[in-house]
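Figure 6 in text form: structure in, sequence out.
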């Protein structure tokens, strides 16, 4: 198998610096993460929306379906998180990617069972704090990312470089990366891998409605909006929901009305039922670089080919 050696691949024991984002509903089954891990990257199970029996079943499927490293993504704000942590610990995942909370809540217990622990950060000070707690690496999320971008809206290229200068840990860059050229750019900036979310939304194995995938393919690089100021900002594809939220925000509507409108739409409706008009179609700006639905293994192979093209196309020093 092809190998690209970086601090992240060496830390996690993977062959390629390709990390599939833990995306609610899209990777809340074993199909997508298994395909990515078996192709040499790091497949990630999204534990956020899952009921405990379903999560336990999927983790059993991961352990049975690959001898390669894989990860669980766990947002620490989810209801019943302590029970979820207990369950995940029993399955001893090779890697944990945690977000939306402090590492000290989980770190020692997962290290005790041999799990590598990565923490998601959205700023330099956040990265320094997480590093000081003893995490093994960081996922650095920039403004281009789908779902929940950083509050300060700093671009991935700037944020990754800043964090790499401030923190001596392996870094995974997330946001705005859809191909091997983006991977090469992130490695040049100091990351040891890139995380791909929107690109894997448009995969055969992603467990979202076909209409959601088609919406990703139809979007341009300017086809996403950030909405939900003061409510938990998300980046999503432009539709009636985002247009209504933007109108309310521009007019200075009361928070109660904005919150009611924001909460009336859901990611679940978009992902599972194909509501591409009123649902929260969370996706990153890199949707404009995605033009086909492909098997996940083919996506990984294509990223590697493009990475080589990007590397080989750089001019030598004269």
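Output sequence:
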């Amino acid at each position: 198998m092809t190998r690209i050696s970086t601090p992240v691949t060496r830390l996690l024991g993977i062959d390629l610096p390709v990390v599939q984002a833990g995306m609610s509903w899209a990777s809340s089954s074993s199909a997508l993460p298994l395909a990515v891990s078996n192709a040499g990257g790091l497949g990630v199970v999204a534990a956020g929306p899952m009921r405990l029996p379903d999560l336990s079943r999927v983790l059993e499927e991961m352990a049975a379906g690959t001898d390669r490293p894989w990860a669980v993504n766990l947002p620490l704000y989810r209801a019943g998180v302590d029970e979820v942590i207990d369950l995940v610990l029993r399955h001893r995942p090779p890697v944990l990617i945690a977000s939306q909370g402090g590492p000290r809540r989980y770190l020692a217990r997962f290290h005790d069972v041999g799990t590598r622990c990565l923490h998601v950060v959205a700023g330099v000070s956040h990265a320094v704090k997480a590093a000081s707690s003893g995490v093994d690496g960081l996922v650095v999320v920039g403004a281009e990312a789908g779902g929940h971008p950083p509050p300060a809206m700093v671009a991935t290229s700037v944020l990754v470089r800043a964090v790499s200068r401030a923190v001596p840990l392996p870094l995974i860059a997330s946001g705005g990366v859809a191909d091997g050229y983006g991977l090469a750019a992130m490695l040049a900036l100091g990351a040891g891998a890139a995380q791909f979310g929107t690109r894997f939304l448009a995969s055969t194995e992603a467990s979202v409605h076909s209409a959601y995938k088609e919406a990703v393919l139809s979007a341009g690089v300017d086809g996403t909006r950030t909405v939900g100021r003061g409510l938990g900002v998300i980046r999503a594809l432009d539709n009636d929901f985002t247009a209504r939220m933007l109108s309310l925000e521009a007019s200075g509507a009361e928070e109660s009305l904005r919150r009611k409108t924001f909460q009336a739409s859901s990611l679940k409706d978009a992902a599972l039922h194909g509501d591409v008009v009123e649902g929260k179609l969370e996706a990153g700006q890199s949707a404009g670089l995605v033009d086909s639905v492909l098997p996940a293994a083919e996506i990984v192979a294509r990223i590697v080919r493009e990475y080589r093209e990007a590397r080989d196309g750089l001019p030598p020093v004269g």
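Caption detail: The longest strand covers residues 70-75.
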